[in-house]
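Practice problem. Given the sequence and the SMILES for zinc ion, write out the predicted structure.
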Amino acid sequence: MKNLFKNTPLSLKGESLSREECCRICQEKKGIRIGIADYWDIKTCNIVRCEKCNHIQLDPMLTEEDTNRGCYAYYIEESQRTSEKEQFKNCIRNFRRGVVFGWMLKSRRISPRNILELGPGSGYFAAGLQFIIPNVQVTVMDINKEVLDFNKEHHHFETIRSIPDILQTTYQDKFDLVIARDILEHVTDITKVFENVYACLKPGGLFHFITPNGYEDVWKHYLTFKLKGVPSELLINHVNYFDGKGLKNLLIQKGFSPVDYYTHTLKTTFRGQGRKENLKLMSRVSQKMSAALYVERKADELKRIEFRKSEILNKWYIRPNAKWITCLYSLSHHFSVIRISPVRNIGHEIYGVFEKNLAN
Ligand SMILES: [Zn+2]
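Answer key:
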């Protein structure tokens, strides 16, 4: 264990430069270039670490148009790569994680009524939460119509077609809980997103998110640039790589207080992610993959999840009349015993629950 911490927190080195766009958190104009990424064949961006707040971002940032095109290409590429069996498993896994989250709320005597989930994917996380707290009203927000249709069909959730960067004035002070699992790393304006989440929440409401530890997530791109001196391939639009301390500071600055904040899963850290300069950990050298190839030619081959909810939840441990069995089973699979302060910037994933302050 001691050895593991020896090279961490790592320092991502590079040359200082004047950025094309200033830092979206602190408006700083200077940065350290730690990598170059090709987002498909759509755009080439520097990966820049802010000298002032340590936030790592693409510079220039992707535009909405770049993102829409790249995300759709990725959606098709991923669906071809992921087997039906795997998609099925992911739904049930997310359901169990929702059960664990619901159990955590219940054990603290928190019972939200109105929930907003940003980027819900299959919606099974919120479904798991609803299984434990049956009275919750769930609304989901996504830009992708197929995602919204799926959520409506499977779970009867309310839907909003939008992105978290845009303020929804009709939903001000409406929600008791906002969920953003694996979303924050994708948004172009993180400051605005936090302001919007704050506006949507009732005072005392909770904000739950998970997001990769930025240092481990960016490591592969850093290595490609450092060891080969060339751009790396970026297919999924991770445009933010968070520093554990910087992320917490930003949330506090925007009117939140931490309830739970930790990183877990050290498997990747043991493998060397964020620490070892090893060719095997490098991101693929950019091939400038053609987004058009997927968007225009392979879209017809798109595979959809065809299972029904009753099939997905047909497991011996999912019992509406004995929910404690579901809880125990889910906890045994998804409860993280190891919890490390994200300030150390090690571990795979940052888990956060923050509360909107009563008065600012
Ligand atoms: Zn900054």
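Check your answer against the key. The chain has a mean pLDDT of 93.
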